[in-house]
Amino acid sequence: LAARPGWLRLHGRETIGSLFTQALVARRQQAFCYSAATRMDFAPAHFQQAAGLVCYYNGAKFHYLHVSHDEAIGRHLRVMSALPDAPVADAFTTPVPIPAGPIELRVEVDYERLLFAWQPDGAAGWTWLPEQFDASILSDEATAPGLPNFTGAFVGMACQDMAGTGRPADFDWFSYRERDYVIDPRRL
Q1: Which of left, alpha, beta for 101 (phi over 0: left; psi -120 to 50: alpha)?
Q2: N or C, which end of the chain is more exposed by having fewer CB within 10 Å?
Q3: pLDDT per residue over 130-141, tens digit each?
Q4: Nearest-CA neighbor of 30 among 119, 109, 122?
Q5: Nearest residue to 109 via CA among 133, 84, 125, 86
Q6: Can you tell me the distance from the alpha carbon of 25 to that of 53, in angstroms, rounded to the nearest whole number?
């Protein structure tokens, strides 16, 4: 808090799937339907640095909306999902180029449906990612037999720097609101 008063600073650590040192601040998901969002300022220098909003059960089951960097397209946003029964453990959405500066990230969960959105700082409306994600994987039941389970699903903020330089991400605020089921959360 001293580096940027009023903001939470997370220094990049190991991958979001790591069993060891992560930079992750999250709260327990307490309802089947909820909205969560954060405002983040993060300037990654390369593809080994990422930060964003994560819906997390454990290192093998999560959906992670994050900002990273690619030499060809620059700063971008994408989702990394770790799926317990998929032939390929990690799945990525197509990167979306985004402008420099703070960004707001949002997730809407209604039972098994999970949708992500983003907006640049000061924008008037949300841009929704076209993909719908499976929130049911964030549960005890979605585990291969014999694998350990955890105590429940979480939603929160994370930061990675696999290069080991501790690149920081600053978070201005985080909100979590339980709500009733809605047919189309993009209208909220």
Answers
A1: left
A2: N
A3: 999 999 989 877
A4: 109
A5: 133
A6: 10
What is the b/e burial string over 122-135, where b = at least 16 CB atoms within 10 angstroms of the residue's CB? Answer: eeeebeebeeebeb
Q: Where are the domains of the chain?
A: 9-187
Biggest CA–CA distance in the chain, Å, is: 47
pLDDT, tens only, 75-123 = 999 999 988 776 555 688 899 999 999 999 999 999 999 999 999 988 8
DSSP string, 17-40: T-SS--EEEEEE--SSEEEEEEEE
The verdict on pTM exceeding 0.90 is yes
Distance between CA 130 and CA 90 in Å, rounded?
Answer: 19
| Tokens representing residue 5 in the block | 């008063």
Task: Please give the backbone phi and psi of residue 135, each rounded to the nearest 5 degrees, phi first.
Answer: -75, -15
Structure tokens at 169: 């991400």
Q: Minimal CA–CA distance to 22: which of 175, 157, 135, 173?
A: 157
For domain 9-187, give the fold: Jelly Rolls (2.60.120)
